[in-house]
């Protein structure tokens, strides 16, 4: 039987994870890091939004009255003008049909290159294809920080271990 070719994500990106974001159980984020330093922020497979057949009511990149990630304007080869984000900077807020709201954070320091406006028109992309067309945002870390941004993030194996422990020790936690 021929072996299935690896996906584009598996081939060109390294998956990193941030679990229990800001102390909220199971709110896990995934950072797809390309060899060119660009990082794509997505929801991890274990995030509550992707569980139990949830449906999304609303997604907004309006973080506060004075801050919208949609107003991010980047220009030129060096990507000038992008909003600078810290690892706890909110990227968007997602409200499910059960009125539970989740905030997605950047997880890494860097310049916001783009947000995924496609999920505003089709929120189901976030549920159907979270690590490809349903991504949240693209961030470019500073060159000098590109090696150190993964400190504090989990590898795929470490992440799977955390999820496995959660499932075995506290099955009703998430």
Detailed description of the structure:
This protein is α+β, with helices and mostly antiparallel strands and 174 residues long. The protein has one domain: OB fold (Dihydrolipoamide Acetyltransferase, E2P) (Beta Barrel). 16% of the residues lie in helices and 29% in strands. The protein has four helices and eleven strands. It has helices at 8-12, 118-121, 124-128, 156-169, and strands spanning 13-18, 29-34, 39-43, 56-60, 62-64, 67-68, 84-85, 90-96, 101-105, 110-115, 137-140. The strands form three sheets. The chain has a six-stranded antiparallel sheet with strand order 1-2-3-11-10-7. The longest helix has 14 residues, at 156-169. The radius of gyration is 16 Å and the shape is globular. The model has no long low-confidence stretch (mean pLDDT 88). InterPro entries: Abitram, GCV_H/Fam206, Single_hybrid_motif. It is found in: Cell projection, Dendrite; Cell projection, Growth cone; Cell projection, Lamellipodium; Nucleus speckle.
């Amino acid at each position: 039987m021929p072996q299935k070719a690896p996906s584009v994500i598996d081939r060109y990106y390294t998956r990193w994870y941030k679990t229990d974001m800001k102390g909220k159980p199971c709110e896990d984020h995934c950072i797809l890091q390309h060899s060119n330093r660009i990082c794509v922020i997505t929801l991890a497979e274990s995030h509550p939004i992707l569980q139990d057949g949830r449906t999304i009511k609303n997604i907004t990149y309006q973080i506060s009255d004075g801050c919208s990630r949609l107003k991010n304007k980047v220009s030129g080869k060096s990507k000038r003008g992008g909003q600078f984000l810290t690892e706890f900077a909110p990227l968007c807020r997602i409200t499910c049909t059960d009125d539970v709201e989740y905030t997605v954070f950047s997880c890494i320091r860097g310049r916001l290159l783009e947000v995924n406006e496609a999920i505003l028109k089709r929120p189901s992309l976030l549920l159907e294809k979270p690590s490809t067309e349903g991504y949240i945002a693209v961030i470019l870390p500073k060159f000098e920080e590109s090696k150190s941004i993964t400190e504090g993030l989990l590898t795929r194996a470490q992440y799977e271990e955390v999820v496995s422990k959660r499932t075995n020790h506290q099955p009703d936690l998430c």
